[in-house]
Amino acid sequence: MSMLSHDSMKKFLLCMIAIVLCLPPLAVAKPSQLSVAERVKNIKTITSYAAKEQTSREALAQVQQLLERADAALKKNDLNTADSLCTQAWDTYQAAVKAAQAKNHKAKEEKALATTMASVKALLKQAEDMEKDNQGKNSGQIKEVKSLLAQASAAQDPAQARTIANQAYSTLKTIVKDFRDGKTLTFDHTFATPELKFADELAYNDMHFGLLGPALEQLGAQADAEYNALVSNAKKLRKQAEQSAKQKDYAYGMRDLVQSTKELKEALNHIGLSVPDL
After folding, report:
1. What is the pLDDT of residues 162-178, one digit of tens each?
2. Cβ–Cβ under 8 Å, residues 93 and 145
3. Are 213 and 268 within 8 A, CB to CB?
4. CB–CB of 215/266 below 8 Å?
5. Coil/strand/helix, residue 24
6. pLDDT per residue over 48-85, tens digit each?
7. pTM (2 d.p.)
8. End of a domain among 53, 77, 104?
9. Would residue 120 count as lying in a domain?
10. Based on the number of CB atoms within 10 Å of its own CB, is 257 exposed (0-12), middle (13-18) or buried (19 or more)?
11. Structural domain count of the chain
C-alpha cells in the first residue's frame, strides 16, 4: 500500500470518528402508552383474584398504591415512570404470593403433624392399657415412644416433627403386635379351639372400641352422622357375634366380629386416625 493511500485511509477513519462523536447518543426505546396501560390493567386483574386468596392484605394494598401512581404517571404521559411503577407493583405481588405459599405449606405441615400426633397419643393410651395386663413387658418401648413424642413436640420444623412422630407410631405398631404375640392377621392364627380363636379376635375388637374415645378427644373431632352409623353398626355386629358364640357357632361369630372391627377402623379413619393392621 502506497504512502498516499495510507494517509487517505487515516483521514477517512478520522472523519468517521468525528461523525460518530458528533451524533447524539442512541435513545432507549420508550414504552408505548398502550403497552403500559395494558400492564396496569393486567396486574389489576391478577391482584383482584389474589384478594380472594390468602395473600397479604398489606402487600396487596402496596401493589394497589403503586398501580394508582402508575395510572397518574400515565395521565401525565410519563411513560418511563409508569412502566417502572408497574414493575415494582408486579415484583411486590410476586413476593407476596411466594410468602403466602410458604405460609400455606407450613400450615398444611402443621395440620398433618397434629393429626399424626393425635394418632400416636390415642394408640399410646391403648398400648398403656394393654401394658397393665402384661406386667411391664414393653415398658422400655413405651418409654421410648413417650421420648419420641417429647422430641416431636419440641421440634421447630413441622416436617421434622412429623418424621419423629411417625417413628413413634411405627414403634407403637410393633408394641401392639408384640402384645398380640406377633400375630398379624386374624385368620393366620393357630389356636387349639375355635373358642380361643374367637377370644383373640374379641380382644382385637375391644382394642378398636377402646380407641374411639381417645381418638375423638386427641383429634378434637366431632362424631358426625357417618361416624355414628359406623360405630352403631360395629356394636350391632359385635352383639350378634357374642350371641353366636354363646350358641357355639364360632364361624358366624368370627364373621360378624371381623366385620365389626372393620367398621370401627372405618370410623376411626373417618375422623382422621389411621390404624395399622396388627
Report:
1. 888 888 877 877 777 66
2. no
3. no
4. no
5. coil
6. 766 555 567 788 888 888 989 988 988 888 888 988 99
7. 0.43
8. 104
9. no
10. buried
11. 2
Residue 139 in domain: no
* The three grid cell numbers given for residue 211, joined into one nine-digit string: 380407641
Task: Express each pLDDT in 224-264 by its tens digit.
Answer: 999 999 999 999 999 999 999 899 998 999 999 999 999 99
DSSP state of 26: P
Alpha-carbon torsion 229, 231, 237, 239, what sign?
Answer: negative
Cα distances from 222 to residues 19, 25, 123, 262, in angstroms, run 85, 74, 18, 20
pLDDT in tens, 1-10: 444 455 555 5
For residue 184, the 8-state DSSP code is -
Q: Interhelix angle for 79-132 vs 139-154, to 10°?
A: 160
Residues of the domain holding 187: 181-278
Whole-Å CA distances, 29 to 26, 32, 76, 78 = 9, 9, 18, 14
Q: Which three cell numbers stand for residue 156?
A: 421447630
- Measuring CA to CA, which residue among 199, 167, 169 is closest to residue 186? 199
Residue 9, burial from CB neighbour count under 10 angstroms (0-12, 13-18, 19+): exposed
